[in-house]
Amino acid sequence: DADVTQTPRNRITKTGKRIMLECSQTKGHDRMYWYRQDPGLGLRLIYYSFDVKDINKGEISDGYSVSRQAQAKFSLSLESAIPNQTALYFCATSYRDSSTDTQYFGPGTRLTVL
Amino acid sequence: QKEVEQDPGPLSVPEGAIVSLNCTYSNSAFQYFMWYRQYSRKGPELLMYTYSSGNKEDGRFTAQVDKSSKYISLFIRDSQPSDSATYLCAMTSYNTDKLIFGTGTRLQVFP
Q: Chain A: which residues have CB within 8 Å of chain B?
């Protein structure tokens, strides 16, 4: 079973629609992240959360919001989708040990906004 | 200028070749360096990580960090078609909460 799951895996929507992408993890990690990946731009951080009551903006948070419903669940919302939000979205989790903040990624959600 | 620079490729090599993938960075505070491998239509998966300068070897893979030059490398020996993927470098420092990723290098190993 996958440790980090994302739903849906693919979504096509129209401009102006509200969209929610969901992420669940069974790794027991306290930290969760949302990234988007675009060709030539790599992975860019949208939001991250270090525990249920801690939410932080990343590099490109405009147009997005998040909710940390539980330690294992972190959802990303696009309140009013626009075409330039078409991208591959990844959720990731991590734990802060003594050496590194290694992140573990979900399989991704491919979002197309028409 | 980006904090982390990585040549996007694509890099195409024959099976059995030695592959060298590289990243440069500008932030001298970075101490932790990682390489992720991403297959098509999959999420990135951690391949190797190193702390500070030096080499780390794991099977056919060797990660190398040269902090004085702000340069990291991943070497793949005896490359296989199954190594065909995009390789992303990532790095962070102890006093920050975020990983900074390179844009990724696409590698194709042909039989």
A: 4, 40-43, 45, 48, 50, 56, 58, 90, 92, 99-108
